[in-house]
Amino acid sequence: MIAGIRDEGNDMTEAGTTASRVAIVTGAARGIGAATAQRLAKDGFAVAVLDLDEGSAKGTVEAIEAAGGRALAIGADVSDAAQVEAAVERIVTELGPPTVLVNNAGVLRDNMLFKMSDSDWDIVMNVHLKGAFLMTRAAQKHMIDQKWGRIVNLSSTSALGNRGQANYSTAKAGLQGFTKTLAIELGKFGVTANAIAPGFIETEMTKATADRMGIPFDDFIKGAASQIPVARTGKPEDIAHLVSFFVSEGAGFVSGQVVYAAGGPKA
Ligand code: NAP
């Protein structure tokens, strides 16, 4: 290091070492959220595994504990302000103040525009957009107190437009704008915000899409893989790896970015 120049990227204070840090991952009972929670625990974070149902979040907690990590199962609906506030308070009490937040909880209510109901629209906006807003508003004060924080929002390649997903593509594009604004507002407090826009990842969400279309999941995967430059579909661990980078100490100069993780150039 050049004398007089602080290496911000490797600046670990007592309060700021990964070992003392707490991460929240929403929608972490399964899929990308579960893989991310497990990865962050392996990286040394104590992880709040938040999902609609506390019981379903326990599976991820048990996997983390079996691997020697520390985790807490929390049941909360991210689109409900009171539940979000209560969840974050419980996390502060039982694990410590959160300085990493991964807004991953998500739902699909796909339909062509002319068949899309008001509730198809509202639920998708509420979970993805309002959920990320409420979780971030509740968690950011702890990041600002510690002058360090990392926020990662799950967008999607659907943000670029996708047939049958007027609601979902709008929400995922909205999350990109939300991410960039968080980066601008919170940067001076040592907080970064970035978004990951995955392509096809093998989870219950893509399986539900295959089921709805009446296509066996293996065939759906093969069909998708044939269109992807790296010739395979993604696994939850592919996304967890990128989250791990964004929340790392060394990533403090990377903020307001959207990375398309889709096995090829999607944007
Ligand atoms: P998933 O398997 O369906 O898991 C989503 C999790 O979020 C579920 O455990 C679900 O709980 C939970 N959840 C839903 N609504 C919630 C709420 N209101 N409050 C708290 N938790 C809630 O989905 P995934 O495939 O892992 O996707 C994770 C994220 O990546 C989503 O934001 C998704 O849009 C995004 N993404 C996925 C893909 C892909 O190909 N899989 C691609 C691009 C982006 P329940 O089971 O109880 O409903």
Question: Any descriptors?
Answer:
45% helix; alpha/beta; 267 residues; binds NADP nicotinamide-adenine-dinucleotide phosphate; 15% strand; 8 helices; Rossmann fold
Q: Structural class of the helices, strands and pairings? A: alpha/beta
Which fold does the CATH topology refer to?
Rossmann fold
Q: What characteristic shape results from the CA principal axes?
A: globular
Number of strands: 7
By CATH, the architecture is named: 3-Layer(aba) Sandwich
Average of pLDDT: 93
Oligomerization state: single chain
Gyration radius, rounded:
18 Å
**What share of residues is helical?**
40-55%
Taking the sheet with the most strands, its summary is: 7 strands, parallel
**How are helices and strands ordered from N to C?**
EHEHEHEHEHEHHHE
Ligand set: NADP nicotinamide-adenine-dinucleotide phosphate
Q: Give the N-to-C terminal Cα separation.
A: 36 Å
CATH homology superfamily: NAD(P)-binding Rossmann-like Domain
Report the uncertain regions: 1-16
Count of separate DSSP helical elements: 8
CATH class: Alpha Beta
Short description:
This protein has 267 residues and is an alpha/beta fold.
Commentary on this structure:
The chain has 267 residues and is an alpha/beta fold. It has a single domain, classed as 3-Layer(aba) Sandwich (Rossmann fold), CATH 3.40.50.720. It has eight helices and seven strands. Strands 3-2-1-4-5-6-7 form a seven-stranded parallel β-sheet, sandwiched between helices. Helix 1 (31-42) packs parallel to helix 2 and helix 3 (81-94) packs parallel to helix 4 (118-146). It starts with 21 loop residues before the first strand and ends in a 6-residue tail after the last strand. Mean pLDDT is 93; it is low at 1-16. The structure holds NADP nicotinamide-adenine-dinucleotide phosphate. Residues 26-27, 29-33, 51-53, 56, 77-79, 104-107, 127, 131, 154, 156, 198, 200-201, 203-206 line the site of NADP nicotinamide-adenine-dinucleotide phosphate.
